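HUMAN: Would you supply a protein with fold tokens?

ASSISTANT:
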Amino acid sequence: MIIDSHVHLENFYKTPISRTRRLENLKKFMKEAKIDKAIILCCVNAVNTKTVPIKEVVELVKNEKNLFVVGTLSINYTIEEFNYVKRSVKSKKIVGIKLYPGYEEFYPEDHRLENVYALCEEYDIPVMFHSGETFETGIGVKYSMPIHIDDLAIRRPNLKIVIAHLGNPWLNDVMTIVNRNKNVYADISALVWYKFDECWNKYYSDAIIRIIKWNDLKDHKLLFATDWPCHDERVYASFMKNYVAFANQLKISNYDKDLLFYKNAQKVFKI
């Protein structure tokens, strides 16, 4: 079993691809990579002006038993937007909420998000944070540094948190935060833009193994994820397959691979 905990339906390229076609491609490439389930993350306009609205994503996948949706809210969300997300969470059409510090100017501890965190706690769904480097410049990367998630995790121990992208390049910070907070997880998506060549394969393999070993006798809390199709357009059709190959070659136990590939995702998203 493999669950990809971080994919999108946005079009990040110049080549126009309809949303329906993107969904069909997602399922096609999942099948080729032998990925059984995927979690589609919604974006805010600060990330991509071609954002697919939450309502449309929910509608697109309503008959897809192996696809799930993580909604999103801007830091300046309206009451109407919040209420829609809340209804979707209650009806289990949304299995988590994604926030985008680094693309919007806020820290995880921002008081404007208190209702969002309370909603996640009430329905036991995770809040996911974009963490690490951003595509765009012009907003300080300080907002998406993973160290800022630590205070939130301590103050809200019942809030499930997922740090996206391993907080790359602040991998050691994530190693520490995940280890010291039982409610914090991290996904391994978008570690490379093009492919895991010899240099990056070793670099990220060593980092992931180090994070797992840092947990010592505890189960690690890493989630397999790709961030498809958010990468170089030349590898649009092969990225998932290559990412699975990278994860499979990690020199970790079968038990740890099961946690990475699907068990942690099942636990976090309750799927």
Summary: The radius of gyration is 17 Å.
